[in-house]
Amino acid sequence: MPTLVPSRPAAACALAFSVLLAVAAIGATAATAEVMIPAGRVAAKLRVVGAYGKVLAEEKLKTGTTTVPTSPRATCLGAGSGGSGKPATIPGATALGLLGQAAKSNAALRPLLITDHFSFGLGLCGVGGSVGGEASGLSWYLKLNHVDPELGGEAVKLHAGDEVLWALAPFPYPAELALRAPHRAKAGKPFEVRVFAYADDGTRTPAAGAKVTGAAAPTGADGRATVTLGKPKRLLARRGKDIPSNRAAVC
Q: For strand 42-49 and strand 163-170, is the pairing parallel, antiparallel, or unpaired?
C-alpha cells in the first residue's frame, strides 16, 4: 500500500511534479471522473508507533471486512489468555481491521499478536515485535481522529478520511504530538513549523519543548520552532514520553 510519507523525500518532490503534469494533461476527463471504492471499503490513514517511540507505519489505505490472525502467544492480558490460532473475521471497516489490512503488505507490522480468548472481543498484544503486557507496563493505545474512542479496535467503525493511531504506551497514556510543516521550503532558508499535543479526549494545545528535526531549538510556549534544511527531509517531533508526531515531508 502507498505510504503517507515516502522513504525518499527528493523522489517525492519529483513524483509530485510528475503527478501534477499528468493531472493537467487529463484535466478535462478528470472533471467528470469519479474515484470508485469497492462497496464496504473505506480509505483511512493509519499510524503505528511501537516500543521506544519507533514509527512502524504511516500509511493511507482502504479497508473493509477483513480477516486477522490470532495467536497463542498473545498473552499480554494474563496467563492462559492467548488466542486460538484461528483467523478471526472483522466485519466492516474498523480500526483493528485497518491494522490487519496494513500488516498483510507491511512486514514492519508483522507478526500481529491478537487474542480471541475473551467473549467481549479481540485483544491486541503485539505489532511487529513491539509487545505489551505486565512485564513492560505498556499496552496498545487506540485513537481515532486524535480522540480515545474507549472501545475495542474491532468495534471502532471507520469513515472515509479518518485517522487511526495505534501506539504502545504506558498508562495513563501520554499526549499525542502532531506536526505541521510546509510542503516546500528553500534550501538554507529558515521556515516555521508548529507542534500540537492532543490529550486523551482530543483537546489540542501548543506543545512547548518539543524537538523537531532540523530545528536549532525546541518549540516555544506557542509550539513553534524554526527549521533550516539543506535538502528534502522528513521531519518528526518528539517530546519526552509523548507519542511522536506524524512525519512531515518537506521538499
A: parallel
Is 75 within 8 Å of 83 (Cβ atoms)?
A: no
Helix (H, G, I), strand (E, B) or coil at 174: coil
Would you list the DSSP string of 17-81? HHHHHHHHHTHHHHTT------TT-EEEEEEEE-GGG-EEEEEEEEE-SEEE---TT--TTSTT-
Backbone angles phi, psi at 41, to 5 degrees: -105, 145
* Exposed e or buried b per residue across 225-234, where buried means at least 16 C-beta atoms within 10 angstroms of its C-beta: bebebeebbb
Neighbour count for residue 79 (Cβ, 10 Å): 7
DSSP per residue over 92-139, as a string?
A: SSBHHHHHHHHHTT-GGG-SEEEE--STT--EEEEETTEE-BTTTTEE
pLDDT tens sequence across 206-246: 999 999 999 999 999 999 999 999 999 999 999 999 999 99
Each residue of 15-73: pLDDT tens digit?
343 333 333 333 333 333 333 344 579 999 999 999 999 999 999 999 999 999 999 99
Cβ atoms of residues 25 and 17 within 8 Å? no
HSE, side-chain direction, 13 A CA sphere, residue 192: 5
Q: Kindly compute the dihedral angle of the four CA atoms of residues 172, 124, 128, 133, in this order, to the nearest 10 degrees.
A: 50
Q: Extract the C-alpha cell encoding 192.
A: 516555521
Give the sign of the dihedral formed by CA 14, CA 15, CA 18, CA 24.
Answer: negative
Question: Cα(221)–Cα(239) distance, rounded to whole angstroms?
Answer: 13
DSSP code of residue 153: G
What dihedral angle (degrees, nearest 10) is formed by the CA atoms of 231, 235, 240, 242?
-170
Residue found by looking up cell 492532543 in the block: 198
